[in-house]
Each structure stands twice: as C-alpha cells, then as structure tokens.
Design a protein that fits this description.
single chain, mainly beta, Immunoglobulin-like, Glucose Permease (Domain IIA)
Length: 273
C-alpha cells in the first residue's frame, strides 16, 4: 500500500473526483506532479500513452511546463464504461535567468558537437522511457544535496546573451566534491561519464514513469542496473558539461515530460525521521 503520508497533500490541492471513480491529489499545474487513484481494472490514457497503475489502483501524472489550460485523461473502467476527463491546469509564471561565462561552443555548438549531443539525448530519452513497475517512489523524496538554490525549473535561460530553452531542473550550488545522494529508492537506468551538455550524468528510475536526474557531477559513484536506497551516496558535485560553476542540476521527469523537482519534493516528501 502507498504510505498514508501520500494522502496528506490536500493542502496542496483539494482532491477532486470525477463521478467518484477517479480522484487526484498533488499539483495540477504546469510542471506539477499529480497522484491519482482509480478502481481496480481501470485503463488510463494520457497524451497518447497508457498509464500504469499500482496493484491498489494508484498512478502518477506529470504535467509539462508548457501544458495548455486543459488536458484530457481517457478513462475506461473495468465494466467497459469510457469517459474523457478534462483536467484544468493552473498556469505558472516563469523567471528569466541570465548566465554568463559559459563556454561558447556549448551555447552555439558546431555541427560535429551537435551530432554528439543528439546521440546523447537519445540515451537520455531511452532512460526516461524505461518502464519500471516497482513503486520505489513510495519512499517519498529528499533534497539530494546541500547548498544554495542557484537556478529553478522553468526559467527562461539566457546564456552569454543568447536566449535558449527553459531550464529543466533545480540547481543546487555547492562546493566541488560535495555529496550527492539518491532522492528516493530506485534503479540506476543511466550512469554516463562526460556527456557534452550534462557532464557526468545519472538517471534514477523510481517506478511508474517517475525518474530523477543528477548532472554536472565531478564523480559518478554508481553503475547502471544498480538498485539504490534513499540517501545513498551516488556522486559528487562538480561543473562538468555546460556549467560555469560547481553545482548539482537536479531534474525530474515523468516518462519524457520534464516536471519541477521542487514540486515533486512538495508532493511526495519523505516521512520525517
């Protein structure tokens, strides 16, 4: 069973119900994570993807940064009853962050470097899309490193004066070699050294589409396929890849949808010890 603490999130949004058969808690907002509950045997489709359910009928939904005002969840109950649920998504305002001192070849890469980046992005995508049906996420999540928050999810990034894609994670500035810990139980689905943009990179799979990402590290201390426990030491803070100072970029995805890791920490906090 999912721990009782998962149902304490009514302070974030009131649990809403559609015909009393599918309910939600969490943050129904751009970049948010939503926890749902449905009767046994329910089939769900969201953004053309089939959504896995735990044995007791719980599921996760990740809402993208640029999600529209309304999105559809297609529900088919065990008796064959089908309905499309329209979910109202709250809009968020995004910051603008200016970062200078980044190596220019990583801001405007040449064709050779661009091809390498594209190949590495395929590795990341494969890691995000691995389906794991162990609900490791039930441990809840902790902040993976100590340090000042130097960048937030969703902000428009202007690097060396060039506007680029929005930032996809939470930057935690710390000293070189600072400890990086697993935010929750999971399986290492990617542990790749010295990627062009992300440097030393780890992806942990927490089950049911939820992954966390750890990049720019100076060291990787785990291997692919390894199972880790929340709090395990997995790496060290660095400034590899496209970085202008030592920090951990902590990201989160639901399958290939980037979500706000700060919101994840609010919606699925680890129980107090």
């Amino acid at each position: 069973m999912i721990r009782a603490s998962l149902f304490l999130f009514a302070t974030l949004i009131a649990a809403s119900a559609f015909a009393d058969d599918v309910t939600f808690t969490g943050r129904m907002e751009q970049g948010g994570l939503v926890i749902g509950s449905a009767p046994a045997g329910t089939a769900l489709t969201f953004n053309n993807n089939k959504i896995p359910l735990t044995p007791d009928g719980h599921f996760l939904l990740g809402i993208g940064r640029d999600a529209p005002e309304h999105v559809d969840l297609h529900v088919t109950l065990q008796d064959g009853t089908a309905e499309t649920k329209t979910l109202a998504i709250a809009k968020r305002d995004w910051e603008i962050e200016r970062v200078d001192g980044v190596p220019q070849q990583l801001v405007t890469p040449d064709p050779v470097l661009s091809a390498k980046i594209a190949a590495e992005n395929k590795l990341m995508y494969a890691a995000y899309m691995k389906l794991e049906l162990t609900p490791f996420f039930e441990t809840g999540f902790i902040r993976p490193a100590e340090g000042r928050i130097s960048g937030v999810f969703g902000s428009q990034r202007i690097l060396n004066g060039t506007p680029l894609a929005p930032h996809t994670g939470l930057d935690i500035a710390g000293g070189m070699g600072g400890q990086v810990h697993a935010a929750a139980d999971g399986i290492v689905t990617l542990a790749h050294p010295m990627m062009v943009m992300t440097g030393n990179t780890i992806v942990l799979n927490h089950g049911f589409g939820l992954e966390t990402i750890y990049i720019h590290m100076s060291k990787i201390l785990v291997t692919e396929g390894q199972q880790v426990k929340q709090g395990d030491l997995i790496g060290e803070i660095g400034m590899t890849g496209r970085a202008n100072g030592p920090h951990l970029h902590f990201g989160a995805t639901w399958f290939n949808t980037r979500i706000d890791p700060a919101t994840l920490l609010d919606v699925l906090p680890a129980p107090a010890k």
